[in-house]
Every structure is written in structure tokens, then in C-alpha cells.
């Protein structure tokens, strides 16, 4: 609302200001014309479930049963809600890494979970090993991981994932992984937790179409899990949305069968956008923290002398005409995020250049 009021360039919310590929949109139009417009089967149309399983096999080497281990949801946000509500009981302890996507805390609260938070700290947001070891115990029901990570752009390393896996196996803990940015991995290899030895049986892998195909408004997501965990996810899903948009699922199946060249071009485009924003932010005077994946970058705003992230973002909108997101909303303890703000580069290059230009002209150290 503030952005609209002040005519600000929105580098805050993570949705592209450019459209998804024509071949996917045409597939949706064709499905609508062919009359594929009634309720879909609750856990997904067979063709889409098969396409999800095939992509997962290509990405991880894992064979999953599309009928028994794949559940289509209305966006990854619903996959998260169905997983929390279907597999977490009141009083269960769940470990989150802060900063985190706000939906995690909300859905865990709905499930009555007891949330334990481990903070990833700048500049590299690495996992604090000793803190994690002391946090996980026999009382822990699940650990939630987001890699590549919103809001920081961090990608969990193989060593970090192996450590988490070992602790989860030792303590019989489940892992829920949000991997919606898996195809936006720029400076490191994306590793799915489910692909590590002994982990598929205790992991729910959640993903979506929106980020990879710039179709965030379609709200098409999925959860992949062994049958005993899928059962819980589907129980909750049945009473959340029951089914997901039918023609969009047909189109999503087409999207997931895109050739590798689509993903290579996507990565190239985003790396060019990222370079414009990161170089611009450094030139303006921010401390820019490294981002290996996602279309986000987190910066330290303190060189500009405002008291916290909210005050800085308000100043940035009103006086400079650019929107960023205060990161304190991504922490259980807002104090931990008060020095950081998040920018996104999922915008066309002219928009990014215009935002950088405004900051160069108008942003002053106070």
C-alpha cells in the first residue's frame, strides 16, 4: 500500500513482473478448451503426478510412486500447511532455522507445535553446529529446512545436510524441506535432503511451479513423501483445498517436461538480473551478504544510520521510492533481523536499473 501511495519501485515481494513461458500458458488454454474444468482427483491428475515423479527422479535419482507418494497441492504454501497439520500433533517440538518464511510459524501454530528456533547469522548464514546438536533430542518431531533459502539466498551445504541427516536418524526425527527455489541455484549445487542415505523414509519434499516458471498466481505445488507420511499430508489436504485447479495441472505437467535448455536460460537471465542489483546495492553503500540461490539478496542497512529495518524500509519507500522488505518479520525474535533488509531481483532489467538509479540519486547516509 505504501509503495502504491508513493509510486515506489517494488523490489520487496517475491513475484516476477514478467510473464511465464508461452508454451505453458498455451497448454492451460488448451486444457480449458478441452473441457478439463471440473474437480481434479484430490491428490492430483495422473499425468501431473507422473511428471512430478519423473522430474524428481531426474533431479535426485530417486524413484517414487506417483500414485502413492506424490500429492498435488494449491501452491507450496498449502503443501506446508498440509504437512504441518497432517504430521504434527499438539505439543510436538519442531526446529526452524531463522530467518524463515512466515507461513512456517503460522501453520505450526495452527498445529499446536512447540517451535524451537536456531538462528542463521550473517555474513554466510551457516548452520551453528553445536547449537543444532544441543537443540535436537528425542523430543524433536521434525526439522524444517528451506534450501535455497528465503530470505537470505543461502544454500545448505552437503556437510550441513549430512550433519542434520545424521542427527535426525539418531533421534528418529522427520525432515520437511521446502525446495521451491531449487532451479534458482546459482553458485552452489542444490541437494535434496531426501536423496541422502537413509533420509527418504523420513522426509517430506515440498516444491512448486510458480518460482521456476514465473507463474506464481497459478498456485500449483506438491509434496513428495513415502507412503506412511503421504497418508498424513493427504488427510489434511483433503480438508484444506481437497483438489487443485484442473486445467493448470495439465499445463504444469507440460511445464515439468521442459527441456534442460529452459532451466539453463532461466539461470542465465537471473544471474544477469542479480548482477545489476548486487553491483548497484554495493555502489550505493550497503553491506551486501552473499546469496547463492533464490531471487533474493539480504543487505545490512546500518551504514545509512536508521534505527531498525522497519524505519529504514519506510524511509526507502517515502524518500527514495524503492521497496525492500524488513527482515525482522522472518524471525521469532524481531530484534535479530533489525539490521537487515531483503531485496528481490525477479523483475525486468529496466526496473532493476531504475531502482538502482533512484537509490544512487536519493539515498543518503544519515
UniProtKB/TrEMBL annotation:
GO cellular component, one term: cytoplasm
CDD domains: AAT_like
PANTHER family per UniProt: FI04487P
Pfam family, any one: Aminotran_1_2
InterPro entries (UniProt xref): Aminotransferase_I/II_large (IPR004839), Kynurenine-oxoglutarate_AT (IPR051326), PyrdxlP-dep_Trfase (IPR015424), PyrdxlP-dep_Trfase_major (IPR015421), PyrdxlP-dep_Trfase_small (IPR015422)
Entry keywords, A to Z: Aminotransferase, Pyridoxal phosphate, Transferase
Domain Aminotransferase class I/classII large per the UniProt entry, residue ranges: 9-358
Cofactor needs: pyridoxal 5'-phosphate
Protein name (database record): Methionine aminotransferase
Gene Ontology molecular function: kynurenine-oxoglutarate transaminase activity; pyridoxal phosphate binding
